[in-house]
Amino acid sequence: MEEARNEENHQVLKVLEALKQASQDLHNNPTSKNHNSNSPAIKALLELQTEADNILSNDPNLSNLSNQISILKTLINKLNSSHGHSFSSFLHRRVNSFEISRVASSIETEIQAWIDRENIENLVKCLREDSADEEEKIKLLTKFEERVSQGFNLDLQDMVLKSKVFSVLESVLCSLNCSKRIRERVAFVISALVQFNKDVFVGEVLMGCTVKVLISMASSCTIQVLCSLIRSIKSPLVDEIESNGAIPKLINLLDSKEVSIKVITLDCVLEIGYFGRKEAIEAMLEVGLVKKLVELQRSELGGDLIDMSGYEEEKESNEVCVGGVEMKSKGKKESREKRFLQKHPFASCVARFAVQLEVGEGLRQRERRAFKQEIVKRVREACVSDAEFATIVAEVLWGSSP
């Protein structure tokens, strides 16, 4: 029974996708040179109508779509019967073309709403079934993520809220019975929902268990999502991380054996440095962040941006190019830094963290000064030589740009 229903829905979806494409083509070009049934878009719609009528009559959600298609057929017939070169004939053709474009757009909207409704229903049902195929879950999650990533849509949001999609996603994210792969995919979908409408879904993230689970899973994917959420939600999310006592767990990930986890955790630390308030920064320093950053900077993937060996700026000619020299030089410098950091992701990470505090949104001016002094003090304790200390402090005090 269930297989028969799925097959029927698949056939409906196939016809509706074809109708949607034809409607989209007709909406974009209602006044083609061929003002008759030879127009590719019109021809496609007319060919699909008979098949669509049989399918649409079985679904009450598609009754309005069936009416729209009938209206469109009537308008097309009017357009085909409108001949002559008089002003009146020209005016009728223009009006009909405008109506065809409008109705085609409505058909496209109706079809997309049906597709969204079916996809959300299938997603929620599939996620709630422990026995459901993992590949099918990944497929549905990916499709839903792609849909919400297209931008805000009020009808889509209403469907998401009515179906309680966020609660289902969070339940899967927190479930130890689900595979790591599915939970990571769910994490990306949650991030996409926040981008879809921050006013609605930020509150869901802050009130739920999402943040705790992302940190406890401690994979490069979940920390990447956490980093994205910090950029989106800013200080309130950093406050949530700090109040949950999750700062030490996050900082400990800088000791991970997996380079990818250390790299994305550093990005996360830098974001916290930019948006974090005094309590969050203090919590990071108290669990030895500066010492860990010094060790990372000392490693093979570290280094100093102030002395980028092998990436020196090409010698400039003595000729002066009016109006363009400074911009070109700045662009070259940024390009060299980017290339260097791709191969040395931990280069000048102490100074980069200090810069985030300096230019960020979370601290007052006096707090910035106090933290810079604290960082210098902790750098001295962590360095193994005067030369290392001098290099790092020079970057912290005067910036990491060469």
Question: Mind sketching the topology for me?
Answer:
Elements: H1 2-28, H2 40-56, H3 63-81, H4 87-128, H5 134-148, H6 154-162, H7 165-174, H8 180-196, H9 198-207, H10 210-217, H11 220-233, H12 235-243, H13 247-252, H14 259-275, H15 278-286, H16 289-298, H17 325-343, H18 349-359, H19 365-382, H20 386-398
Helix pairs in contact: 1-2, 1-4, 2-3, 3-4, 4-5, 4-6, 4-7, 5-8, 7-8, 8-9, 8-11, 10-11, 11-14, 14-18, 16-19, 18-19, 18-20, 19-20
Q: Got a strand count?
A: 0
The amount of helix comes to: over 70%
Q: If you compute it from the alpha carbons, what radius of gyration comes out, rounded to the nearest whole angstrom? A: 29 Å
Distance between the termini: 69 Å
Descriptive overview:
This protein has helices spanning 2-28, 40-56, 63-81, 87-128, 134-148, 154-162, 165-174, 180-196, 198-207, 210-217, 220-233, 235-243, 247-252, 259-275, 278-286, 289-298, 325-343, 349-359, 365-382, 386-398. The protein is mostly helical and 402 residues long. The chain folds into three domains: 2-117, Up-down Bundle (Four Helix Bundle (Hemerythrin (Met), subunit A)); 129-260; 288-309 and 330-402, no CATH class.
Summarize it.
With 402 residues, the protein is mainly α. The chain has 20 helices and no strands.
